[in-house]
Amino acid sequence: VAVTAPMARLHLPSLPTLLCCSAASLLLLLRWQWRRRLWKKVKEVQLKHERGVAQMEKIWLGFRKKVGAIISTVGGCKGGEAPTPPRLIAVRAGCISPVGFTGSPQALQITRETNCITEYMWESETKFQQAVRPEKPGLLFGVPVSIKDSINCQGYDSTIGFASNINKPAAEDSVLVQVLKRQGAIPFVKTNVPQSLISYDCNNVIFGQTLNPTLYTRTSGGSSGGEGALIGGGGSILGFGTDLGGSLRLPAAFCGICALKPTGNRLSKTGHGMVAAVGPMAKKVETLALAMRALLCEDMFNLDSTVPPLPFNEEVYSSTKPLRIGYYETDFFTMPSPSMRRAVREMKQLLEDAGHTVGHGNNPLHRDQEWRLQIHESCHKFIAQWKKLNLDVMLCPVLGPALPVGYPGKLAVATSYTILYNCLDFPAGVVPVTTVTDEDEDEMENYKGHYGDHWDRILAKGFSGSVGLPVAVQCVALPWQEELCLRFMREVEKLAEEKNRIV
Ligand SMILES: CCCCCC/C=C\CCCCCCCC(=O)NCCO
């Protein structure tokens, strides 16, 4: 009796409970199997990625042995051609192979260490070697270009950082890539992005975190963060990314390079995920201009009829007429770091000294909170205000220096300086102009933000310890005036280079 009594109290589960438990177990088993399959795919892609980088390394070392110092001897500008940075001249002259793109022995190491590449395009080397210079070569003949993961390239995955997108290669090239190829460019790598693209960090479950080439504890920015790190580290001359809230401009600013976010439809957006605008990234403004010149062609207009047939306006771009420039140092939402503020202030002075008219700091576009409300209410109101002030272009801050890895996820609000020009759909570019100084760092002691809240405290922490990191300014023009925006960027770049040479 003593033994059977407890047994008698034991309840057997009812049939519905048993069925529920079995169903739950089955679901868990299926989920486990699905995740296992996904992880297997991730591992395969990671191996493929490793093989690609190793192959690049092999080609690059072979190239260096063969070509030696030729790159450093190539420079200047051929008569009749638009002025082009020396390295572009070199590739167009056939002196550089897609992965032998650089004269710096560190570039491939930085490329590897920053983890910026997702896929190496194996056919690019053969294409490059076999390229026969046609009678009328395209404007980008022989130029190796890097492409953000999310921009479709036939035969390659556009993962957007999701494991479920592995082994789903794009059926055809995006219009952008088609036109690049028709202009003679050779896409040679795809570059990393944050999962979903809605972040200005650069991390995903497949390829991991991309680091900033100027300081490995900092993010490269995002979502075109792989491009930022690759170009910033010297691993690519010209790359392409997309922008919805700052995804071209933030990684460029963080990595010390230039980028242009054009008006939404100036370049075709067909064949890219989640995008407000597609644009070029490069170390030099002249390279961005070359890319725009090449892309704004009949092929682009024919392949995508929604793109207005506006060829590159050389007259506007090459004009030296003094500009009427508006400027502001803060948007009264995200308080600029001391270096962001100084970058704008110093550039304002340089522009004035160079003979441009720079609107007073307290113009109504940024005097108080009102202008931001106007923007959200009406883009037309903003344009009318701009016209009333008789401005050609606007000089303003862009977030910087680069934040530590992981910080962008906590600070979406800090996109305020860039996202504004997506809301307005104005062309906006960034140009690196300075680096964080000891004095900037000392001033961070007093940084409280505009609100002194949780976000401001995180931002203050993120900005600190940044001496030596690049800081950029943002250059903005009215819709469809990419050439004017680039012309302004070129001026800013020239003045910054002159100043930094003297300092
Ligand atoms: C007054 C400004 C308020 C800012 C509020 C910001 C809210 C959300 C921002 C999300 C972060 C976006 C990062 C940019 C990512 C991007 O541009 N991705 C698209 C790529 O095509």
Automatic annotation (TrEMBL):
Keyword Phosphoprotein: yes
Domain annotation Amidase: ranges: 110-360, 369-486
Entry-linked SUPFAM superfamilies: Amidase signature (AS) enzymes (SSF75304)
Catalytic reaction(s) noted: 1-O-methyl-(5Z,8Z,11Z,14Z)-eicosatetraenoate + H2O = methanol + (5Z,8Z,11Z,14Z)-eicosatetraenoate + H(+); (5Z,8Z,11Z,14Z)-eicosatetraenamide + H2O = (5Z,8Z,11Z,14Z)-eicosatetraenoate + NH4(+); (6Z)-octadecenamide + H2O = (6Z)-octadecenoate + NH4(+); (9Z,12Z)-octadecadienamide + H2O = (9Z,12Z)-octadecadienoate + NH4(+)
Pfam families, per the entry: Amidase (PF01425)
Enzyme class: hydrolase
EC number: 3.5.1.99
Alphabetical keyword list: Hydrolase, Lipid degradation, Lipid metabolism, Phosphoprotein
GO process annotations (BP): fatty acid catabolic process
Highest taxon above the source species: Eukaryota
InterPro entries: Amidase_CS, Amidase_dom, AS_sf, Endocannabinoid_amidase
GO molecular function ontology, one term from the record: amidase activity
Stated family: Belongs to the amidase family.
Protein name per Swiss-Prot or TrEMBL: Fatty-acid amide hydrolase 1
